[in-house]
């Protein structure tokens, strides 16, 4: 989705020009997204229930209001799962929202004396993001394999430390950045984010028993998007104006610390039988 979306915007801007994209051609990517919606709908309609859920259903364990049960009986794993995802979402939106706005804004200083932008052309940044999205996909596959070998929790602890380290070194890539340094930042960030997505798809469901597994994992995933993504997108530019790129990096590192604490509070689920959770 990330690759197709940015690829469509890149092609429309390249073929029709930036002015046309801003004035009317932005509608083309949005209308074409119907194809992605159709693919997603097809995948969801053709999915089969897991055997553990079918067994639970046959035993009469299917719940009528699983969401309320998550909040009343499984609040702790939901909170842990939410904060396990926070750093990943923060990183993603700092790369795609903050870094994009910062890179494209004309070079000038804020009232506090910090750079507000790099003046990189919009099409250039979109192209860099498009290439780095390929790295994201590659590392999702790699992370899934290695997380199965060493454990989801252990793998994610090390990756979360890497997110914090990337946050604290952000000025090296963006403070006086060039297209090359921005590209390096995007590639490293997408690689790290890919390393979280592989095991995360297994870890979140494994935090919950069968009868609330889907509801619990979905709640944790989407609450994390509100805390990690929405807030990051809203305040990162303001943080940069007041405290510079280092301030944004520290914000990312704080999110990584929250995720690290959540991981330390969780248990390894690598060899756990799903019927015993």
From TrEMBL:
Record's GO cellular component terms: plasma membrane
GO terms for MF: transmembrane transporter activity
Primary location class: membrane
Subcellular location: Cell membrane
Transmembrane region(s): 24-43, 78-102, 122-143, 155-174, 180-204, 216-237, 243-265
Membrane disposition: Multi-pass membrane protein
UniProt entry tagged with the keyword Cell membrane: yes
Keywords per UniProt: Cell membrane, Membrane, Transmembrane, Transmembrane helix, Transport
Keyword Cell membrane assigned: yes
Source organism, top-level taxon: Bacteria
This protein's name: Transmembrane transport protein
């Amino acid at each position: 989705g990330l690759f197709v979306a940015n690829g469509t915007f890149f092609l429309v801007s390249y073929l029709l020009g930036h002015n046309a994209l801003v004035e009317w051609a932005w509608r083309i990517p949005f209308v074409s997204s119907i194809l992605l919606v159709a693919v997603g709908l097809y995948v969801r309609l053709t999915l089969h229930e897991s055997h553990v859920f079918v067994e639970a259903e046959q035993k009469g364990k299917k719940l009528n209001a699983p969401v309320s049960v998550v909040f009343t009986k499984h609040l702790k794993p939901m909170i842990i799962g939410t904060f396990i995802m926070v750093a990943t979402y923060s990183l993603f939106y700092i790369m795609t929202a903050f870094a994009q706005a910062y890179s494209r804004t004309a070079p000038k200083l804020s009232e506090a004396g910090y750079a507000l932008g790099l003046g990189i052309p919009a099409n250039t940044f979109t192209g860099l993001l498009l290439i780095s999205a390929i790295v994201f996909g590659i590392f999702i596959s790699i992370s899934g394999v290695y997380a199965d070998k060493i454990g989801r929790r252990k793998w994610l602890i090390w990756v979360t430390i890497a997110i914090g380290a990337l946050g604290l070194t952000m000025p090296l890539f963006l403070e006086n950045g060039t297209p090359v340094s921005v590209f390096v930042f995007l590639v490293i960030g997408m690689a790290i984010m890919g390393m979280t997505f592989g095991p995360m798809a297994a870890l979140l469901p494994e935090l919950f028993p069968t009868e609330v597994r889907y509801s619990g994992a979905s709640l944790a995933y989407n609450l994390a998007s509100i805390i990690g993504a929405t807030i990051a997108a809203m305040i990162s530019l303001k943080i940069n104006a007041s405290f510079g790129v280092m301030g944004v990096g520290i914000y990312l590192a704080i999110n990584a610390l929250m995720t690290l604490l959540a991981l330390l509070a969780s248990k390894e689920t690598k060899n756990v039988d799903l019927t015993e959770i």
